[in-house]
């Protein structure tokens, strides 16, 4: 299984879209990282992916942006 982390913020509608999909499909194996609650996450995301945009899915160190792309990845892999 791949190491997956989702960078998100609860007030972002695109993040909520991804989180809702995960909830509706019982996807519980992805680590959730709230960029508003954990210091340094935005800087980490920028360093690893080149921007601080959320939602962002870290797939074994490779960052995927865009909620539609993330949902499609989840559909294909869960």
TrEMBL record:
Give any GO molecular function from the UniProt entry. Answer: transferase activity
The name under which this protein is listed is Glutathione S-transferase, N-terminal domain
InterPro entries xref list = Glutathione_S-Trfase_N (IPR004045), GST_Omega/HSP26 (IPR050983), Thioredoxin-like_sf (IPR036249)
GO CC, sorted alphabetically, is:
cytoplasm
Q: Which domain of life is it from?
A: Bacteria
Organism phylogeny:
Bacteria, Bacillati, Bacillota, Tissierellia, Tissierellales
> What Pfam families is this protein classified in?
GST_N_3
Gene3D superfamilies for the chain: Glutaredoxin
Q: What keywords does the record list, in alphabetical order?
A: Transferase
Report the residue ranges that make up the GST N-terminal domain in this protein. Answer: 2-78
PANTHER family to which the protein is assigned, alphabetical? GLUTATHIONE S-TRANSFERASE OMEGA, PTHR43968
